[in-house]
Design brief:
- The chain contains three helices and no strands.
- The protein is mainly alpha-helical and about 60 residues long.
- The protein has a single domain, classed as Methane Monooxygenase Hydroxylase, Chain G, domain 1, CATH 1.20.58.
- Helix 1 runs antiparallel to helix 2 and helix 2 packs antiparallel against helix 3.
- The chain starts with a helix and ends with a helix.
Amino acid sequence: MTEYREMADAAARMEREKNYSGARVMWQEAAECAKSRDNSKWAQSRFAFCCARLSETRRYLYR
């Protein structure tokens, strides 16, 4: 299994568990080690999704 695949699998598992902070870090690392442009773009989009979910969570916590 490639380094990208291991990181992407771990990030996806964290997302399913709603651990967006951890998933965000793993997606960022996956994007950095991706060898194909498609994998890099996918990891970057998941990173952005996790960032958005974190900001939504913080917004609801502080109301």
